[in-house]
Design brief:
- The protein is α+β, with helices and mostly antiparallel strands.
- The chain is built from 7 helices and 7 strands, in the order αααββββαβαβαβα.
- It starts with a helix and ends in a 7-residue tail after the last helix.
- A 5-stranded mixed beta sheet has the order 5-2-3-6-7.
- β2 and β3 form a beta hairpin.
- The chain is about 35% helix and about 20% strand.
- Its EC number is 3.5.4.16.
- Pfam families: GTP_cyclohydroI.
- One of its GO terms (molecular function) is GTP binding.
């Protein structure tokens, strides 16, 4: 019989998610970023000391503070709703009615199971129902949801849901192709493999529209 620790390890090693939303506590923002940095700094110091590192060495003495600032201000900054980009939209005055595709958006995220990087590309598309969104806002939405401990399936869904809400249409799609360093650098150590996830809404569920999108991004994967 598998025990609880083995069960949790199996979830992490197989990259399963237990929640469609990022599992945040209700009190996640009761303390300031500066307070979080101080707490994380002490935790990183403890980890390094436990590993046997000499924290008096000039090369490493600043590492706890650097890591703490990086966690709060950078790679996990997307957890803070105050940093959510404003998804400004505009009337589609030029009546463009075809698919708009923004491809090869850089994805830098972090696997929530091992806190190792996820690095890849997102390809996002929508068909306007009367509103359009600035191209850079699509990149910023991807970046915002990527900058948190993540599961790639969830990230793909969150990008689509955010754009659907902003544009007032179901006709949104996203495909992400990314490498997980928790697979590439540990465990099975397969440096060649990557993970492809997709979410298709509205008209993109139609096989012909879906194929057109996949042709634009030159992806041969069948969905």
């Amino acid at each position: 019989m598998i025990n609880n620790e083995e069960f949790l390890d199996e979830i992490g090693d197989n990259h399963f998610s237990s929640n469609a939303k990022n599992p945040l506590r209700d009190d996640a923002f009761d303390i300031t970023d500066e307070e979080k940095i101080e707490k994380i700094k002490k935790d990183v110091e403890s980890i390094l000391q436990t590993l046997g590192m000499d924290l008096t060495d000039d090369s490493i003495k600043g590492t706890p503070n650097r890591v703490a600032k990086m966690f709060v201000k950078e790679i996990f900054g997307g957890l803070n709703p105050a940093k959510q980009p404003k998804a400004s939209t505009f009337d589609n005055n030029y009546k463009y009615g075809e698919m708009l595709v923004e491809k090869n958006i850089t994805v830098y995220s972090t696997c929530e199971h091992h806190l190792l990087p996820i690095i890849g590309r997102a390809h996002v598309a929508y068909i306007s129902s009367g509103r359009v969104i600035g191209l850079s806002k699509m990149n910023r939405i991807v970046e915002y949801y990527a900058k948190r401990p993540q599961v790639q399936e969830r990230l793909t869904m969150q990008i689509v849901q955010e754009l659907q809400k902003a544009l007032g249409t179901e006709d949104v799609a996203c495909v992400i192709d990314a490498k997980h360093l928790c697979v590439n650098s540990r465990g099975i150590k397969d440096i060649e493999s990557s993970t492809v996830t997709s979410e298709f809404g509205g008209k993109f569920k139609d096989p012909q529209t879906k194929r057109e999108f996949l042709d634009y991004i030159k992806l041969d994967t069948q969905f």
